[in-house]
Amino acid sequence: MRILVTGGAGFIGSALVRHLVGEIGAEVLNVDTLTYAGNLASLKSVESAPNYQFLRADICDRARMQEAFASFRPDIVMHLAAESHVDRSILGAADFIQTNIVGTFSLLDTARHYWDELDARRKSAFRFLHVSTDEVYGSLGDEGLFEETTPYDPSSPYSASKAASDHLAIAWHRTYGLPVVVSNCSNNYGPFHFPEKLIPLMILNALEGKPLPVYGNGANVRDWLYVEDHARALFTIASRGRPGEKYNVGGRNERRNIDVVHRICAILDGVYSDRGPHARLITNVTDRPGHDARYAIDASKLESELGWKAQETFETGIEKTVHWYLENEWWWRPLRENVYSGERLGVFKGR
Ligand code: NAD
Ligand code: DAU
């Protein structure tokens, strides 16, 4: 099985590549342009595997994508490359429009022309998995879950760009017959998570005795999924999902942000009892503009149709994650020093 992965040097992409190369034994081509979020250090464990190749290229570059498809000849495309951070999209949406919308178009159209020329057997087996987010559905109130049929209602430039790309992916199936499958997943966490996102930022700030900035009152709810559970779900959907269908992915682990931060503090208190309660560092800061109140996923279609189930609970996953950061300073220290040191992103004058 030959799988072309885009964005494989990112957080979820690298977990997926490690799973495909190490556990599935697929031939993998990782196409990634290496933005600030792309990091080949996350792929150290597979970089010299005979079934792994890396191509540094931008998905918006049609000529490079055509060459990559023609020479690698994938059976499956798993498209994860994106600008992924909501706060950065608030400060400047241009890269989000370019990569998430124009880049997805470039990849879909390249895939369509490649797929058109395949023989009948390879044509019917081919899949294009477009990896998306639950944020396309907007915000929930206190009750209810996002289902695959929930209408789209995105709030941020990031989620609007992902919504646009989902519509393109489904349109390429309906219009051209390309065997596209779309996945919409909730918040991931785990090892190799870039420290701009809530969980790794809180872990590293707490370790360094810095304030833990909680947006607003901290009552916003996210539905957390351990990244390795997501990687398994993505392979399941790409290999067995039905063309033209959407699958929601989530771990049934809803938590308020403030409770997540308290849990991280409690784990660190257990390791460093002499540093005082880490929760004293919690600081309420100006809310994120357009901040969605609650996300929660109904993953029953994926569970019943394809037999996937999350293996980690939030309690087991967060414990593993905090310990991973304690043991892997070699990975995060250069990012904190040279790429992003944790300053507030996503606020602008007038808010
Ligand atoms: P990430 O920001 O960690 O990684 C994105 C990767 O894409 C990086 O390696 C980057 O270099 C690469 N990339 C960006 N622009 C590119 C371009 N033009 N050409 C080629 N490569 C490019 O993102 P992530 O958190 O791993 O998310 C991966 C995908 O999953 C995204 O599509 C995101 O929308 C989706 N998603 C993320 C989450 C989450 O909680 N992180 C949840 C649901 C869905
Ligand atoms: O739901 C899936 C989405 O999850 C993905 O599509 C996105 O790519 C991914 O970044 C993530 O988006 P969020 O905006 O939910 O993640 P983030 O880690 O930025 O924020 C999680 C929550 O924590 C959110 O309610 C905002 C809050 N927050 C975040 C940061 C960085 C804080 O309170 N303080 C912070 O410093």
Describe the model.
- There is one protein chain.
- It is built from 12 helices and 13 strands.
- The longest helix has 23 residues, at about 95-115.
- A 7-stranded parallel sheet has the order 3-2-1-4-5-6-11, sandwiched between helices.
- Helix 6 links the parallel strand 5 (about 125-135) and strand 6 (about 180-185).
- About 50% of the residues are buried.
- The mean pLDDT is about 100.
- The chain is α/β, with parallel strands linked by helices.
- It has one domain (about 1-195, about 225-255, about 290-310): 3-Layer(aba) Sandwich (Rossmann fold).
- 2'deoxy-thymidine-5'-diphospho-alpha-D-glucose (DAU) binds near residues 134, 186 and 215.
As a whole number of angstroms, the C-alpha radius of gyration is: 20 Å
Instruction: Give the overall silhouette.
Output: globular
How many domains make up the coordinates? 1
Continuous helix count: 12
H/E element order: EHEEHEHHHEHEEHEEEHEEHEHHH
Bound ions, cofactors and other small molecules, one mention each: nicotinamide-adenine-dinucleotide, 2'deoxy-thymidine-5'-diphospho-alpha-D-glucose
Tell me the strand order in the biggest sheet. Answer: 3-2-1-4-5-6-11
Termini separation: 50 Å
CATH homology superfamily name:
NAD(P)-binding Rossmann-like Domain
Describe the biggest sheet? 7 strands, parallel
Under the CATH scheme, which class? Alpha Beta
Enzyme class: lyase
EC number: 4.2.1.46
Pfam families: GDP_Man_Dehyd (PF16363)
Keywords: Lyase, NAD
